[in-house]
Design a protein that fits this description.
Order of helices and strands: EHEHHHEHEHEEEHHEH
Bound molecules: adenosine-5'-diphosphate, adenosine monophosphate
Structural class: alpha/beta
Oligomer: single chain
Strand content: 5-15%
CATH class of one domain: Alpha Beta
Largest sheet: 5 strands, parallel
Helix content: 40-55%
CATH superfamily of one domain: P-loop containing nucleotide triphosphate hydrolases
Number of strands: 8
Number of helices: 9
CATH architecture of one domain: 3-Layer(aba) Sandwich
Radius of gyration: 18 Å
Amino acid sequence: MAASPAVPENRPPEELNRAVILLGPPGAGKGTQAKKLAAKYSVPHLSTGDMLREHVAQGTPLGVKAKPIMERGELVPDSLVLKIVAARIERPDCAHGFVFDGFPRTVAQAQYLGELLKQHGFRRPFVIHLVVDTALILRRITGRRTCKTGGEIYNLFERPPKVEGRCDNDGGELFQRPDDREEIVAPRLHAYHKQTEPLVAYYRRLGLLHEVDASKSVEEVEQQVCKTLHHARSKH
Ligand code: ADP
Ligand code: AMP
């Protein structure tokens, strides 16, 4: 009997054709998992936090407005964030879906996103709520370090780089986000509970919410996220 053919290396990725929303408090692991999902489906990882930090770094008028708000650990006004998102999903690389990390963060943003997805011909999004023990959040946020060049995310306590201060992938310098200092964590969590957590009930009511225990290891969470998405895709 002939051996079964090997899976070709250039096999096209599974098509997503949807928006995936990763919901959860700061430090839940949204960025970490979004990068993995985006790579798996060959779609863009859309982090509004990264987009805003880019505006801040470039000193654009929007960045100038957002900077002090982000430094205080508060949410940037919906109008500014929505403008960035609407422009981003117009780009051709978003045609087959995308993974949101840190968006939407208010009910108004979620409502607007619903309209935007309809306008672009997308079906309803898959929403994955990363549920994490609050005791873990402080450790995850204060230990977070990010590569300046490639954006790879590390954690000094949980996922340290092989060489201190340097990215394993490209040797880039690792930095700590200014809002990851311990004193900014409380206002960020306050903003989460007050403005973002209502989205859990919002998406549950719409029948779009899927929960994953994000207290587990990165690999276990990844497995659960993929399983959840696979299951949701086969149902809808
Ligand atoms: P978010 O985008 O939700 O704020 P990140 O993905 O940036 O969260 O993760 C926050 C920190 O926690 C980072 O330092 C990351 O390396 C670490 N981390 C993420 N997921 C896990 C996990 N499942 N177990 C341990 N550490 C994790
Ligand atoms: P993040 O990188 O997702 O942790 O976001 C960092 C900061 O950017 C937040 O604390 C907010 O100040 C701002 N931000 C990111 N995304 C949003 C959003 N969708 N709405 C409002 N503010 C946001």
